[in-house]
Design a protein that fits this description.
binds zinc ion, 4-stranded antiparallel sheet, alpha+beta
Length: 142
């Protein structure tokens, strides 16, 4: 399992983001995963939902299997933060700093995203799937 440090200032903004989401879905309560793991839902689709806990764990809830999966790698964590930052930009602060000797990711040519056929239909843009090699940051540590 990978864990990141969530600073107090980011935690405060995430709490505000979670409160706004709660109001947007007309709920007075947190969803069960948010409640159980003290987390915030960052995005969800028909197959599952992704969360960041306030103690820095990435969590995926697979709806079909009703399975909770803790993110295991920094690449998965990068993907969670990149997707989550579309709705909550403060998450970008939690991405790792690019080391000076990092190399541009060859899989995505440093863009962080790769083209997939389904991207346009689902996400209304052609390059919305984050890169599985760098997780969307566009570089790889040496
Ligand atoms: Zn990449």
């Amino acid at each position: 399992m990978v864990e990141i440090k969530v600073s107090d200032s980011v935690r405060k903004k995430l709490l505000a983001f979670r409160d706004r989401n709660k109001k947007a879905r007309w709920s007075r309560d947190l969803d069960p995963i948010e409640k159980q793991y003290n987390a915030v839902c960052l995005w969800a689709d028909i197959g599952g939902a992704s969360y960041l806990s306030f103690d820095g764990k990435g969590i995926y809830h697979n709806f079909d299997a009703d399975e909770i999966i803790f993110l295991k790698s920094q690449v998965e964590m990068n993907q969670l933060l990149i997707y989550g930052s579309e709705k909550c930009p403060t998450l970008k602060q939690l991405l790792p700093q690019r080391p000076s000797d990092a190399l541009e990711c060859q899989s995505c040519s440093g863009r962080g995203f790769v083209k997939k056929d389904i991207s346009k239909a689902i996400y209304k843009r052609e390059d919305a799937i984050s890169c599985n090699v760098c997780g969307g940051v566009g570089w790889c540590a040496t």
